[in-house]
């Protein structure tokens, strides 16, 4: 079944400073949207606002999932409705083992409580796909994880939750070449499973592996250019100056 995420004339403020100034974006399942733009222009703000971070105040506009506004839903309900955000800087949670955490989020997303052996088998299988060492499951969430391990842990969560839409914020930063390959493969197999994606990255080596269907450039809180993946090539060759004028 196809799903649709619609961002309509979205204005977002942080501490009463307006950051997003009228974003329009439609993403359907099966599509991969590359979101680019110079630093500090609102890419992360857009993803945080879609996910419902309370610090990001929607001052105008709407976010619709399959035609229904989700603005009144808190983060956990948006998550259960099928939105997922892989963070640019995932937090450490001391004292909570990664395995417990993963078990918890799987149960929080299931109608009925799932049997433990089934959850563990799913976690192990997803970890194996990511070449993520099972010893990482016993440690506290992200505690002492390398940059790349933290990013893999985000994708591990995504694989377990089967979202309709996944928002990915600079997941490729901090990944070595092998990890980048593995994460890309995992993202590609998930899109074949008809997830819609919005991916923030600066690098064509990542986009080359993921092959976005659409690309957008955000400058000063607005999408100034939208089109196909040729935009990514142009930015890599020429930078953003042409997009600013
Ligand atoms: N928590 C915050 N408090 C105040 N300003 C913020 C906060 N987060 C982001 N900003 C500001 O919002 C603007 C957009 O930031 P961001 O969305 O993170 O940009 P990008 O992801 O495109 O690099 C920047 O000017 C940044 O300083
Ligand atoms: Mg950012």
Task: Give a short summary of the structure.
With 245 residues, the chain is of the alpha/beta class. Helices cover 37% and strands 30% of the residues. It has nine helices and twelve strands.
Structure description:
With 245 residues, this protein is of the alpha/beta class. The protein has a domain at 4-91 and 163-244: P-loop containing nucleotide triphosphate hydrolases (Rossmann fold, 3-Layer(aba) Sandwich). It is built from 9 helices and 12 strands. The protein has a 6-stranded mixed beta sheet, with helices on both faces. A hairpin with a 2-residue loop joins strand 4 and strand 5 (68-69). The mean pLDDT is 94. The chain binds adenosine-5'-diphosphate (ADP) and magnesium ion (MG). The site of adenosine-5'-diphosphate has 12 residues, from helix 1. Magnesium ion (MG) is lined by residues 43-44, 88, 169. Pfam families: ABC_tran. Keywords: ATP-binding, Nucleotide-binding.
Q: Residue-averaged pLDDT, rounded?
A: 94
Q: Strand order within the widest sheet?
A: 6-9-10-3-11-12
Number of helices: 9
Count of β-strands:
12
Q: Helix/strand-derived class?
A: alpha/beta
The main β sheet shows up as: 6 strands, mixed
Strand portion: 25-35%
The CATH superfamily of the domain at 4-91 and 163-244 is known as P-loop containing nucleotide triphosphate hydrolases
Rg computed from alpha carbons, rounded to a whole number of angstroms: 18 Å
Query: Approximately how much helix is present in the residues?
Result: 25-40%
Segments where pLDDT lies below 50 for 5+ residues? Answer: none
The CATH topology of the domain at 4-91 and 163-244 is: Rossmann fold
Order of helices and strands: EEEHEEHEEHHEHEHEHEEHH
């Amino acid at each position: 079944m196809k799903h649709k995420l619609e961002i309509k004339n979205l204005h977002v403020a942080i501490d009463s400073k307006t950051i997003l100034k009228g974003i329009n974006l439609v993403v359907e399942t099966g599509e991969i949207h590359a979101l680019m733009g110079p630093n500090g222009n609102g890419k992360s703000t857009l993803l945080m606002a879609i996910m419902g971070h309370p610090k990001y105040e929607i001052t105008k506009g709407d976010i619709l999932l399959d035609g229904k506004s989700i603005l009144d839903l808190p983060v956990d309900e948006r998550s259960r409705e099928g939105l997922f955000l892989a963070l640019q800087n995932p937090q450490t949670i001391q004292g909570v083992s990664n395995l417990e955490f993963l078990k918890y989020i799987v149960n929080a997303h299931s109608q009925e409580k799932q049997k433990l052996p089934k959850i563990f088998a799913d976690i192990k299988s997803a970890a194996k796909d990511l070449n993520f060492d099972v010893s990482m499951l016993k440690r506290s969430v992200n505690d002492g994880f390398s940059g790349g391990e933290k990013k893999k842990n985000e994708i591990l969560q995504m694989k377990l939750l089967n979202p309709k839409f996944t928002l990915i914020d600079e997941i490729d930063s901090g990944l070595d070449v092998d990890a980048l390959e593995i994460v890309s493969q995992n993202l590609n197999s998930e899109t074949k499973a008809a997830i819609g994606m919005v991916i923030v990255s600066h690098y064509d080596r990542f986009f080359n592996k993921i092959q976005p269907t659409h690309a957008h450039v955000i400058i000063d809180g607005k999408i100034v250019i939208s089109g196909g993946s040729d935009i990514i090539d142009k930015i890599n060759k020429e930078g953003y100056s042409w997009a600013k004028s």
